[in-house]
From TrEMBL:
Organism: Caenorhabditis remanei (Caenorhabditis vulgaris)
Domain of life: Eukaryota
Transmembrane keyword on record: yes
InterPro entries in UniProt: 7TM_GPCR_serpentine_rcpt_Srt
Keyword entries, A-Z: Membrane, Transmembrane, Transmembrane helix
Family matches, as Gene3D superfamilies: Rhodopsin 7-helix transmembrane proteins
Spans through the membrane: 36-60, 72-96, 108-131, 152-174, 201-222, 234-256, 262-287
This protein's name: G-protein coupled receptors family 1 profile domain-containing protein
Amino acid sequence: MDDILIYGGVENIPMYNCSARTPEQWSTETGASQPIIGSIQIAYGVVVNLLYIPIIIIMLDKDNFKLSCFKIMFQLAITDFLVIFINSILTGILGIQGAVYCTYPTLIYITGSVAMSLWCSSCCTSLILVCNRLLVMSKPHLESAFFENKKTFLILSCSIIYGICFLFTTPHVYNSKHHAWFFDPMIFPERSKEYDNLPHAINNFSIVVLTCILYIPFYLIVKDNLKGTMTESRLHSTSVLICFSSQVAAIIYVIMNLTEVSAGLILFGHFLWQLVHGAPVFIYIILNDMIRRRFFKMLRCNKNNSTAVGISIINQSNIVPQ
């Protein structure tokens, strides 16, 4: 992002200059319309974000938000909401159009930078949440020392600052031919290696290692507390799925930016990126009893209100003026 300030605009950055062709020519030569995949991704993104809205409202409830875990989950939810808008809704729209970086250079450069920042910030925040849960179940006094009251916000600010740092690294840019986000805008084929993003690779591989290290004691503690219950089985399966998805997505996105891989693997990696940020919605509804009850209660209230309004309108329309 600092290059925008240095050069006075995205299109003025030498490595991102699209002046050799028109946007239409770039789309025709290096892109491909993806109407089916694009439509599916838009639908997925809209559904996930619509479901996330009541969940976010529930998290902000005064009794919930005073708990450190809900503060952390709220930050993750906001991050997920924004990322889903980029990697599903916006990506789907660009895919249907057959867009590439040079079709909308400023839009794609900036959203790619933001997506990079949000991904890395969410990686850090997820680790904070796991640490918080570990301390709550094993060392409550340490949890209070680190997360009591406003201390949680201080720790969460570290993940925000960490994510902001990635705004100043090479951004992801979209390409409809592969229907994924790459560091290489595919303007200068012979210079593709110059777009490599080492901090991103370090972040992703670090997340894989740290997640494995933290999830082992986390699972063992939870298993001991919930031994033999259906909750344990569901929690284990879901935790493994999310952990596995985030790890594989992190690795695939590094590999596909460093070397040539199959189109199927690229699409699978992007799907896992979407799953990592969309799955929490369904996990909250399925596994968190409090959120599930409040969620369906909100839906029933809205349904009842809509029904009441409809009946009122019908009754008013049946009144005959005297």
